[in-house]
Design goal:
By secondary structure, this protein is α/β, with parallel strands linked by helices. The protein is built from 9 helices and 14 strands.
Length: 345
Amino acid sequence: MQHIDRMRLVLKAVFVVFFLFCAVRPLPVTGAEPAAAGAREKIEFESESYKNLPDMLKDRPPSTVTITATLSFPDEVKEKYPAVILAHSITGFSEPCEGWYAKAFSKAGFAVLTMESARSRGIRNASLTGGWNLFGPMVADAYHALNLLAQHPRIDAQRIAIAGVSIGGDIAHVTAFESLRATYVKGTVRFAAHVSFYPTMVWGIEAGSDSYTGSPILIMVGDKDDCGPPSKLQYYLDYAKHAGFPVPIETIIYQEAYHGWGNSWYTPASYKPNLGSMAKCPLVLLAPKSPNGLTLLGSKGVLPFNYERWSDCMAAAKGYHIGFDENVRNRSLTDAVSFLKQVMK
């Protein structure tokens, strides 16, 4: 009997010790494990092929396509990363251009998502036509990517930026238009920042109190850019300011820099007479309340949009200089990273 009582006391003591051990033992951290150093993920999603931006604001179901994107993580291991979605130029993704910027952003500590919007839709030679048919699809792709990254367990949803080169630079700007964001993105999700490398300066939006999402924008242009001339950027900024609704755009102008300074294919700089350009065209303003959703901003102010007039100015604007500049590319990357780290603290 005494033996049994002693056994009960021993078992009771073991139970108490076990209970105390479990009570004070640290619980495992919930959530995703940090990504492995330099890890890469393939991401697929369905996206639309809108013919133009106003269609994105209307109930006009377009054709769809499957986009395959690559999400690359930095070598530094973290639980969550800030991210950059990188929009490519008019010729599509290339290693000498977008590949270089993607690796540079990754070295700076950002997860980077890259994708192919043009060739996924069978769009070839857009550089000869000006790429009008690429703007809607690329904006749709960017918003889908934003929605996906905002739900990714290894991405900080509050610190997702978009950056782009050439026409991708236009996409980086356009995705800051609130009317498009509110139509296409879930809830209050938005890009935390927008970085545009030498955009073609095709798009703006009619001035208003809610034209932009409010996220900061950096646009970098070359003073010799005759595809997206800095003069067009300046008169757009002046237009918005005079209308009483200045836009949240910070600008940097690099001296002696041509369009395409970030693409090492284009060495040395040269004039390409067959490339489509909109340099001599007015800015196209997204205008949801106008009959066709667009207006034009020229030297005489805002005018109704007319496709024939637009086609005529595009035909007259063919040809521009394009040239790689390693120093400007490096400076632009440094300026972009500094900007992102400042505004996405």
